[in-house]
Amino acid sequence: MDKHIINTARTIVPQSLLGLTQTQPTLQLDEEYRVVSLRDVPPRKVALISGGGSGHEPAHAGMVGKGLLSAAAAGNVFASPNVGQVRRALDLVVNEKGTLIVLMRYTGDVLLFGLAKEQHAVTHPSYPIELVMIGDDVAVPRSQGALVGRRGLAGTILAYKCAAAAAAEGREVGECRDVAQAVGAMLGTIGAGLNHCHVPGTATQDNYLKGDEVEIGMGIHNESGISKRKLPPARELITSMLSYITNTSDTERAFLPFKHDGQDRVVLMVNNLGGLSELEMGLVAHETLAVLDEQGIEVVRANVGSFMTSCNLPGFSLTLLLLPRDEDQPIFTAERILELLDAPASAPGWKPLNRVVKEKDAYVKNQAPVEAIRNGGKKVPCTINCSRALVPSFETFQSALRSACESVIQAEPEITHFDTKIIKAIEDKEMDSGDCINSVLSIAQAIGRKMDGTSGALYNIWSNALAAGFANAETADGSAWARALSHALATLYKYTAARAPSRTLIDSLSTFTEHFGVSQGKDFSGAVKAAVDAAERTRDIQATAGRAAYVGQDALKEANVPDPGAWGVVKILEGIDRVIGFSK
User: Fold this and answer.
1) Which residues contact 472 (CB under 8 A, 6 or more apart)?
2) Active-site option among 196, 198, 221, 487
3) Tell me, what CATH number does 204's domain have?
4) Do residue 354 and residue 442 come from a single domain?
5) pTM for the complete prediction?
6) In angstroms, rounded to a whole number, what is the distance separating the alpha carbons of residues 534 and 551?
7) What's the pLDDT at 345?
8) Of 349, 271, 272, nearest to 36 (Cα)?
9) Do 448 and 326 lie in a common domain?
10) Number of structural domains, the chain?
């Protein structure tokens, strides 16, 4: 569906957050920074914060509450919050014990929250902050996501819950971090979509899937999944989905150590991605429990609902948290994890986990049928030749019923499919004239205020580090620039696993930096030319980092275009070369 209840696409996020906080007296909203936080942050307990792009409600703002998150920063739809938002969230939860940041592993989120953490450390050097990234998606194979790792999905909510419960007990920030990491390492999630979601304010596109198709592994930002196929019955679909989590023979996706000896125990989360009816969700829950029971996997806790959506995507995801066994000597036992999951919590989007009963125990024990209604009047024997009524034979009656049922089954629902295409352009010309370091810093701060997403984070970290690279320089000559650029690149490498060749902006940026450094700052134009060549080579490079790593590589190769990020760096450098001309 491409119709939405909004005022404008620009105001939907802040107005949605306002509606949340108006109906939840324990929460408050910083409207300027779009941060939802607790009104009363416990002063002597570790605070948890998170955030990410909007459109995934109730994650993340809906998970702010007692025993869960202390604050959450909301970016634009499907875009990371900027560094200013994250820093505001950190400021709102400062306490005596420290703060734990728990994130879904997406490059933009990691970079921006990491940058905010580093900046907070400058102004609060003794304040303890830890950061944990959760990646539970099994759709991306190891070889394709080797550098960037698994994406974060609905399982992140379970990591929140356990870490927050430990914080509520008064544990130190390091132990809360360890809890989140231990839970995250045992999570597996797989999704399925009947179509792409539609983002408010964007144009309607052609149908993505046919009326009888489903895509397994579809991402929460409409990323391509593992396979498209004809939509099978629910049991067959769910069996196929669970195999990606539990099958240990698939070396590309065997992320969890299931032993399949009848002793595996799991926590199950059945998550509505935004567009399925509650009717369907109940069926999905039943079939998932049935399949796991057939496989000898015991479900000890479960919850069903909307925890991490994708706007109005018609689909669902299944998350399994594999509980550790005592013989493996885990840092946190299964009983400890269940204790943390069962701990009291209250947040608008949280639904408590429940114990699971076997199918046979779910039914009413007294199976006595309701007494049949019989004709209380005079019984009149009747045959097919009776003059008072024509009663057909039983065989004829049975055939008529069967025909009616088949007619209903053959009737297929109409499904409308939509796609999304987002183009954003951000221009910033703010500079502090007269001083190289302050000029670079002012640009970095402008990027932090105005630029969302992965590229904004990369440019922001790089700009801050570039300014820091001049710390001991006496003059901003070519050699000083070369040293500062090398420092900026080295700092950027702390926050991104991308290395050339990777089909990212790193390809051209690192090539330029290295060439300029070798020339000791004397050959800017030559370095730019080298960067152009590096960007051109990305046409034939398989993406190993960034969002392109998650999409079909054949489609990228067929398009035969350079990476947009790498090409953007080139255009920036060419513009500088035309004006400044370091080589001259």
Assistant:
1) none
2) 221
3) 3.30.1180.20
4) no
5) 0.77
6) 21
7) 97
8) 349
9) no
10) 2
